[in-house]
Design a protein that fits this description.
The protein has 14 helices and 10 strands. By secondary structure, it is α+β, with helices and mostly antiparallel strands. β2 and β3 form a beta hairpin. α4 crosses α9.
């Protein structure tokens, strides 16, 4: 019921509630997801597997009263109206390339390697200033569509009065280039085991224990995480390397809050977190995953570790929060003001000329592209 509304003006909460069974609304919206899962499922492993979709990039207990876990869960399960996830042919970079090509054909000028330094608004629009190796430049427009987080945008506007609290991310991402797929202790064909999502230490009790350890300022002893190998689904990701049997392997770790890695013990915790993540993978292999990792020209392992502060440093996502902040419900509160196109499409900021088109839009949804679609619709409606 929700998926078809994502590319339409925002529905009201009461309208969405009326469109679904009251029991479903109670289970997914009105009460903490942890209660729903424990009521519906008895097995610890099944409970944990279901719960993980509410914890991706979100540091929270399954029983948290904020319901951040419920909103995260909903976004992960409503894709395409079925919950189906798809891998772009050619990798995520192919999506970026297609957008760039379409924009250029439409007459857009693409400026890369630029740092936006400020945004200012006026009666007739807004001005964006940016800096490149050639110096500082600027441009004015009726509308500025912002793909950065709301916290970042408020800073560029110099607006501390409406600036939200700085978000904090919670994840560890390991990217590995494998010369070969590892063998599993279970004897399962690795091409089968890694073609979907492999869940590690993600039983219900595992998740709760890891949350409590991280909340206490400790790296979880058995960190929960997920492993997937997109190159098994789409070999074109690796282009010329694919025929050599090379694969990409990605580990996404849960309950790894930013503060664990930025304090006085940050460096030591980073080393520990990577070691424990690797150990959680090795637990199911006949050897170590590191024995399968390719070496670069300097004989170093092709292994990349990204913590929240790395994401902030490289992509300006505040606190390394992959959603630019906690996700919103993909509908408007019953008393919300929906008078302007930007308000109706869920992309409004305190400034008429500035719209949110990234994950910070009400229905940003991380890599879904919904924020951009809906910001464009708001601009078209305002013409």
């Amino acid at each position: 019921m929700v998926a078809p509304t994502l590319t339409q003006p925002l529905p009201r909460e009461r309208d969405v509630a009326a469109a679904v069974a009251p029991s479903i609304w109670q289970d997914l919206v009105a009460q903490p997801l942890g209660r729903t899962i424990t009521e519906r499922f008895a097995d610890d492993t099944v409970r944990g597997i279901v719960a993980t979709d509410g914890l991706i990039g979100t540091f929270v207990s399954m029983d948290d009263a904020s319901l951040a876990q419920n909103r995260c869960f909903l976004y992960h399960l409503m894709g395409n109206g079925t919950g189906e996830w798809r891998v772009p042919v050619g990798g995520m970079g192919a999506v970026t390339d297609a957008l760039a090509k379409a924009a250029a054909l439409a007459g857009a000028t693409l400026v890369t390697g630029a740092e936006v330094t400020s945004v200012s608004t006026g009666a007739h629009g807004a001005e964006v200033r940016w800096r490149t190796a050639e110096g500082e430049q600027g441009a004015t427009a009726r509308h500025v569509l912002s793909g950065v987080a709301p916290w970042t945008m408020a800073g560029l506007l110099g607006d501390e009065a409406t600036r939200p609290a700085k978000p904090a991310g919670s994840q560890l991402k390991l990217n590995l280039l494998l010369e070969r797929l590892p063998m599993l202790r279970s004897g399962v064909d690795p091409r089968v085991a890694f073609s979907g999502t492999m869940h590690l230490s993600e039983g219900w009790c595992d998740l709760q224990l890891a949350y409590e350890e991280a909340l206490a300022g400790e790296v979880p002893q058995r960190p929960p995480g997920e492993v997937y190998c997109h190159s098994l689904t789409d070999p074109s990701i690796l282009e010329d390397l694919a025929p050599m049997g090379v694969h990409t392997l990605t580990y996404f770790g849960l309950h790894m809050p930013e503060e664990l890695f930025t304090g006085p013990d940050g460096e030591a915790n980073r080393v520990t977190a990577v070691q424990r993540a690797i150990a959680s993978i090795d637990e199911h292999l006949t050897g170590s995953i590191l024995d399968c990792v390719a070496l670069d020209a300097d004989d170093k392992l092709c292994l990349e570790a990204k913590f929240p502060h790395d994401v902030e440093a490289e992509l300006a996502m505040p606190g390394g929060h992959i959603f630019h902040g906690d996700l919103d419900w993909p509908w408007a509160p019953n008393r919300a003001k929906l008078e302007t196109p930007a308000e109706r499409w869920g992309v409004a900021t305190p400034y008429d000329a500035v719209l949110m088109c990234g994950s910070g839009a009400r229905r940003g949804g991380a890599v879904s592209g919904l924020g951009g679609h809906n910001a464009a619709q708001a601009v078209l409606e305002a013409r």
